[in-house]
Amino acid sequence: MGDPASIGPEIAIKALLNPAIYAICNPVLVGDAGVFRDIVSRLNLNIHIHSIKHIHEAKFQPGTVDVYDLDNVDLTTLKFGEISAMAGEAAFASVKTVIDLALAHELDATVTGPINKKSINEAGHHFAGHTEIYAHFTKTKKYGMLLVEDNLKVIHVSTHVSLRQACDLVKQDRILEVTDLLYHGLISLGETNLKIGIAGLNPHAGDSGLFGTEDELEILPAVEEARRRGYDVEGPVPADTLFSKAATGYYGGVVAMYHDQGHIPFKLTGFKWNAGKQQMDSVKGVNITMGLPIIRTSVDHGTAFDIAGKGVASPDAMILAIESAVQLAKFRASERATERKSDYEPA
Q1: Res. 86 pLDDT band, cuts 50 70 90
Q2: For residue 204, what is the domain's CATH number?
Q3: Looking at the domain assignment, is residue 345 inside a domain?
Q4: Name one GO molecular function term (predicted).
Q5: Domain co-membership, 203 together with 272
Q6: Backbone angles phi, psi at 54, to 5 degrees
Q7: Is residue 52 predicted with pLDDT exceeding 80?
Q8: Is residue 198 within 8 Å of 223, Cβ to Cβ?
Q9: Of 223, 225, 284, whose CA–CA distance to 255 is shortest?
Q10: How crowded is the C-beta side of 273, counted as CA atoms within 13 Å?
Q11: What percent of the chain has pLDDT over 90?
């Protein structure tokens, strides 16, 4: 569901208005059914909300949206576009519930809507975002945020930390870790171009130490070790040229050193602002958490509090996130089938 005061419930409902989604998966929304009924009423949508308490009760029929109902939002006090502990608690509960359902093998994959970190923290859950929540409750130590949109596939060495901390986290071991996560992510998404570009941290990738030493002391050794391990990598490549090449498909994937280094070029590619209408025409981009024992994809945009409840939010990113989750689930299923087959083959 995402944050109930955000565009999360709206884009979830709009995504499931697309019959093509039901052709590729059996979708279930997790959250407060009352919130979804309110959205349907506000937008005058011809769709029925079917409240369930167990996955086996779902109908999986176009025109009927199955909602695993947590019944935890007071609509009389909920206000669109406002931070609140109630909304934060509802958003957190929906995330925790899908994690539990996936770990129990009741779901093949999970897809998350946007949450507000301030609301989550006001509810007493001190996490920097979805990625950290998933890592905590799945007991995952090595993970990474992978962004996917058309030719750009970007993983990050660090994400939700200060820029000062981000520089300190540029270490050889972590760069190798996310390079490995990216490589396996590209394979699981069905990509054939496995060439990886690794960004420099400093301007001009440090320019031989003139503008910082991290590129020479941490990034370059990681690149050299990755090559020894058999990866097709280049780097450190100055970020101001790396992403222009990646956008053309030259690299199958890119390792960014910190949050904004990867997110800014990514969103320039996927987010289309209409100056005349003063709104987004399209918001594309999928966020995948790599390294988890369960599948998690997400929209790569925020809560958009300024347009919440107005009916103008684009479901493009949510549809792409669902499609990516299906692709990842199919790949994981094929891997397991191969493993089972090998178990029965004679030595």
Answers
A1: very high
A2: 3.40.718.10
A3: no
A4: 4-hydroxythreonine-4-phosphate dehydrogenase activity
A5: yes
A6: -140, 145
A7: yes
A8: yes
A9: 223
A10: 4
A11: 77
Distance CA(51)–CA(64), nearest Å, equals 10
Whether the CB-CB separation of 91 and 52 falls below 8 Å is answered with no
CA distance 185 to 133: 20
The Cα 201–Cα 27 span in angstroms is 40
DSSP string covering 244-299: HHHTTTSSSEEEESSHHHHHHHHHHHHEEEETTTTEEEEE--EEEEET-SS-EEEE
d(CA 98, CA 94): 6
Q: 264 and 301, same structural domain?
A: no
**145, β-bridge pairs:** 289
Q: What is the pLDDT of residues 212-248, one digit of tens each?
A: 899 999 999 999 999 999 999 999 999 999 999 999 9
Domain of residue 178 covers 141-291
For residues 51 and 34, is the Cβ–Cβ distance under 8 A? Answer: no
CA distance 122 to 62: 37
Sign of torsion over alpha carbons 25, 108, 11, 252: negative
For residue 56, give the DSSP letter.
G
Q: How confident is the model at residue 289 (pLDDT cuts 50, 70, 90)?
A: very high
